[in-house]
Design a protein that fits this description.
By secondary structure, this protein is α/β, with parallel strands linked by helices. It has helices spanning about 5-10, 30-45, 55-65, 80-90, 105-110, 125-130, 155-165, 210, 255-270, 270-290, 315-320, 340-350, and strands at about 15-20, 75, 95-100, 120, 135-140, 165-170, 185-190, 205, 305-310, 320-325, 325, 330-335. The strands form three sheets. It has a seven-stranded mixed beta sheet, sandwiched between helices. It has a three-stranded antiparallel beta sheet with strand order 9-12-11. A two-stranded parallel sheet has the order 1-10. Strand 11 (about 325) and strand 12 (about 330-335) form a beta hairpin.
Length: about 350
């Protein structure tokens, strides 16, 4: 199934050649309207408070459906680093955490600052074979931020299971274009402001029922209660925490979540498999064009194409209205559902024409 051009035209109107979703995704019009409507109400004195919790619930349910997990395993928040910090705080002193070299800092630093954990970092393609007896947690991004490489997720899960290690997957650079089975991981963390097309301030944590048994809700507030908003959750200690992963919820920022409800509904309407086919086809076309002109991108089927050694050309392209980014010496070009073959050709013409 192809992306519906009338739907995309109705939802997106970029004024640039926008190839920078790995930094942040574009907001659909329906999401912009939701934020504007709530902001207007807040400015006028909204009787219902700062926002509708129903939008948070809808976003949680959409994310659960998009990632193949029961909504009872999904907690909401505002950033990946807070979710990762919660998991890091739960580990025993001396626990070994295995990560890829060059992993994004939000996934690494919460474990590093503990000071009493054993962090071991290996090349991404050696991660599965580096799992060993005594490894407590394997943490990785499904798609690497610096160069778009897609990890061998099946091999990592199998190795972790063989050695009794828990798994933490950061899906920030993949959720929204790469199909994800969140139920297959002990923990997943996902920033919503990239391929999920949400504003900053939206993130998701998934936790298996087994992992919930040893993960304390260290930042529990009123929204972590079984009955949020009721008297027994507003003053003094909460008398009953939520029986699901909702007990790990942070207090939601309503403006971003009003938008998230709409953005995730749009992705459900289109379908992740459809987005995956669209994004990777454009990325493949771009990669093939680069190779025809003697440039070799990082190998792999990904929505993110990285060209080593050309990171310093990112500013030049941005000045020409082609928004890309430079990361770790790479020129990083990202394709998503609002991009077209014309965007591919414009970027190629500028780089090699």
């Amino acid at each position: 199934m192809e992306i519906s051009k009338p739907l995309i035209d109705a939802e997106f109107a970029p004024r640039t050649t926008y190839l920078n979703t790995a930094v942040n995704g574009l907001l659909p019009r329906r999401s912009v309207h939701a934020v504007k409507a709530l902001a207007q109400e807040l400015g006028e004195g909204r009787p219902g408070g700062s926002g509708d919790y129903s939008a948070v619930t809808a976003a949680r349910r959409s994310f659960a459906r998009l990632t193949g997990v029961d909504e009872g395993r999904v907690a909401i928040g505002g950033s990946v680093s807070v979710h990762a910090g919660l998991i890091a705080a739960s580990l025993r002193s001396g626990a070994e955490v295995l990560l890829p070299e060059g992993e994004f800092t939000s996934l690494v630093t919460p474990f590093a600052v503990r000071g009493d954990l054993k962090l071991r970092q290996v090349p991404l393609d050696e991660l599965a074979e580096a799992v060993r007896p005594g490894t407590d947690l394997v943490a990785l991004s499904s798609v690497q931020s610096a160069d778009g490489r897609v990890a061998d997720l099946v091999a990592v899960r199998a190795a972790a299971a063989a050695h009794g290690a828990r798994t933490l997957l950061d899906a920030s650079q993949s959720a929204g274009w790469l199909p994800l089975d969140a139920a297959a991981w002990d923990f997943t963390v996902t920033a919503g402001y990239k391929f999920l097309l949400c504003p900053r301030g939206v993130s998701f944590l998934t936790v298996t029922e087994e992992a919930q048994e040893s993960l304390p809700p260290a930042h529990a507030g009123t929204f972590a209660a079984e009955r949020p908003g009721q008297a027994d959750s507003m003053y003094g200690p909460i008398t009953e925490l939520a029986r699901s992963a909702r007990r790990y919820d942070e207090t939601p920022a309503y403006l971003p979540y009003h938008a998230a409800e709409q953005s995730l509904a749009l992705l459900e309407e289109i379908g992740i498999q459809t987005v995956h086919a669209h994004d990777t086809a454009l990325a493949g076309r771009f990669s093939a064009g680069l190779r025809r002109h003697g440039l070799e991108p990082v190998a792999g089927e990904s929505a993110i194409v990285a060209v080593p050694g050309l990171g310093d050309r990112a500013e030049e392209l941005c000045r020409a209205g082609i928004l890309v980014s430079g990361r770790a010496g790479n020129l990083r070009v990202t394709f998503h559902l609002y991009n077209s073959p014309a965007d591919v050709e414009r970027a190629l013409d500028f780089l090699v024409g």
